[in-house]
Fold this protein.
Amino acid sequence: MDKKQVISHLRAAKSAHIKWRSYAQAIAAGLPVSEDQVPVIHTDCAFGKWYYGTGQKLSGLPSFQAIETPHETLHAIYMQMFKLIFDTEERGFFQKLIGASKRRDDRKEQLNTLLNSLVEMSKTLLAAIELLEQEVMQMDEHDVAALI
């Protein structure tokens, strides 16, 4: 694999992350999205499969290591959103009747806060991916070939 192919794979992984984020935002907005489109676990999304799979060939690069924490954090935030959105906790009839509106408002506020955190963490992740891409682009073909 040459430098051009490495960059191409990296950009495809980055695009997969952007697509994942759009599905997460759609779910938060109440739009229907199938469960397989927004995996909760960071190793199950398309970006995670690349990062923990063929992307490991780049693991010796300093900027590669900076990607893992924001990616894991992003999925942890999404896990909180997922639980909030799909909470099926049973409540008694009167609890539902009296507290439904308050809970709905609280959930909406919590969801918006989490969504903002998710978008900010996504920006951090994308910036880290950009640094990795720049690092690879600055390498000569021989050095890239040695990674792979």
Q: What stands out?
A: The helical segments are 3-28, 46-51, 62-85, 93-138, 141-147. The chain has a mean pLDDT of 87. Residues 3-147 form one domain. The chain has five helices and no strands.
